[in-house]
Amino acid sequence: MLIKELNKLLKVHHLSKKLDENEILKNLDFQIEQGKITGLIGRNGAGKTTLLRTIVGILSPDEGSILIDDVDLNKSPISRRQIAFMSDSTNSIKQYTVNELITIYENSYPNFNKYKFIESLNKYNLPNTSLRKYSKGMKTLIYLLLTFSTGAKYVILDEPTNGLDPVVKRTVLQLIIEYASSNSVGVLISSHHLAELEKIIDQYLFMKDGRINSISTMEESTSQYYKLQVAFENGLPKQFEDDPSISVFSKTGKVAIIIINGNKNEYIKRMENEKPLLIEELPLTLEDLFFINDGGELYV
User: Fold this and answer.
1) 293 Cβ partners below 8 Å, 6+ apart?
2) 17, 25 in Cβ contact below 8 A?
């Protein structure tokens, strides 16, 4: 029984992919557990969308494999039905009626739960009509409900909250949390909305230049990194600005916000020797971790 539990994984193993002779994915290795939500973050162009499209089978890997319970999806295409994908656009569903979408999803996913889906429609007051009459928020919500009714073991979501108003966004995030926990489904979610992602994920993957630069949980990261707001009469002393274990997040006059990778108490003691005007610890966020993993560079 224990062995079966341990095998409930979606594994990405030595995955590489080229597009137009450009190497987009470079020897990626990670795994997604059922019942857990994993956030995928990184700059535009890091390879996130290519990774998602390769996992769900829109693109084929050049090297490596994607496995569910140790079954290679390239050798067993039917196993890919255990993955459901919600893309970053509703264009693929907007021309259909609700009944047409039910038929499409029933044909695509043998475990599609029609009754659960219709129950969800009623719960969120979504009309059983053509999606041409739906607002953007309604289309996103029904797309998510379709995805969550597939019976898939793993769900891949690409920017599911883009362009949503705060009320619909909150509903979508709550749905993701409830679905992952109550159905023991593994969720991989790519998003640039780091503050909202931080609230729902169990772990994050940081992609940079086609590689997984970091795999961690917020708990692990907050035990490794510390964020301080400090002030000195003549600005941040050069010894701290040049320290490779310190990332300078911002500087405004005498005040600097820094992130330390190291012994917090040791650094505070060193700073106290420089007669600071202020030393205050601040909460570390996913945005801060993005900044650190990206090399502390400004980006657009």
Assistant:
1) 206, 208, 213, 214
2) yes
Region at 39 (left for phi over 0; alpha for psi -120 to 50; beta for the rest) = beta
Give me the pLDDT at residue 297, please: 53
In a domain, 298, yes or no: no
Whether residue 5 has pLDDT greater than 50: no
Question: Coil, strand or helix: which one is 56?
Answer: coil
Residues 89 and 235 in one domain: no
Q: What is the pTM of this model?
A: 0.90
Q: Which residues contact 273 (CB under 8 A, 6 or more apart)?
A: none
Q: Which domain holds residue 229?
A: 220-293
Helices marked H in 96-183 — which ranges? 98-108, 114-123, 136-148, 166-183
Same-domain check for residues 126 and 255: no
Cα–Cα dist 65/55, whole Å? 9
Give me the phi and psi of 189, to 5 degrees please: -125, 125
Contacts with 126 (C-beta within 8 Å, 6 or more apart), sequence order: 98, 120, 134, 138, 141, 142, 145
- Please tell me the distance from the alpha carbon of residue 202 to that of residue 195, in angstroms, as a whole number: 14
